[in-house]
Amino acid sequence: xxxxxTGPDTLTRDALAVLQPGFDGTTAPDWVRRRLAEGLASxxxxxxxxxxxxxxxxxxxxxxxxxxxLLVAIDExxxxxxxxxxxxxxxxxxxxxxxxxxDPDLTRGVARELGRRLAACGVNFDWxxxxxxxxxxxxxxxxxxxxxxxxxxxxxxTAAWVEGLQSTGVAACTKHFPGHGDTNVDSHHAxxxxxxxxxxxxxxxxxxxxxxxxxxxxxxxxAHILVPALDADRPGTLSRRIxxxxxxxxxxxxxxxxxxGMEMRAISGTYGLEHGVVLAIAAGADAIxxxxxxxxxxxxLGLRDALVAAVRSGELPEERLSDAAARVRELARWTxxxxxxxxxxxxxx
Length: 349
Fold this sequence. Notes:
CATH architecture: Alpha-Beta Barrel
CATH class: Alpha Beta
CATH topology: TIM Barrel
Distance between the termini: 67 Å
Order of helices and strands: HEHEHEHHEHEHHEHEHHEHH
């Protein structure tokens, strides 16, 4: 008797589709290739994956040989946070420098040139820009990654950065919603808390995100921060009030919501990695960033299985997971169309 092999069911494919994992090495691992065939729709590149731009181009080519519509994400802010130039330092000015000059056309142009470099390497999704207003000078994690301490300045440069990057067919991911600027704790290590009233949040933290949404940002990244004025119980990444109630319903944002790195101790040390991922999708996140630290196949399979189990137990509605996976695939379609359109645009002299 012959047994016919069958592929993963829809639920399993959707669970893989919402993950954006990293991996070790400068070539495509076999396990990543296998999971792409089973439904994995995104991967993330980190400094450990980058030697030269030619090598990154070859790497993304290997990955797309398995899945043509793959999202390849990277954390490339320019300035202090760079992956393409991890060995030498970024050749582009960072947000603080751009904000100091305060020329939105320059910011737009820098983001456009960065986008062209990313697109040429096969990267189509950038976890940038930072739209955080640097309201706390003791902030240990934002600082010069912000355009500045003035809300209107941050808003206009965030919009310009989004416009410049996305003109090249590379999707922007505006972060860290609802604003990580007024913290004195690094969410890589613990849960930051912002104790200001709702009026301050609406007037100071949210305008840059409104500007990014108006500029068409294709993605927004959540912050692992506790904001009692919005939700006293759960940090932004796990809060339905913040991701669905505020971002989706109140601000009218309909694009992809991606989490900040889920291995960060603000989530993994408080809720556990697998449970945190389930809570994030249930709250309204569509894509899970993981792989900055945990970058192995076992992590991906554990998260996939946790999502499937949560649906089967009733903890996570299947339609919520299906909707999240659909948003990931929609962004992949947009980047494919954007690459074709950007190829027809000649570089500015």
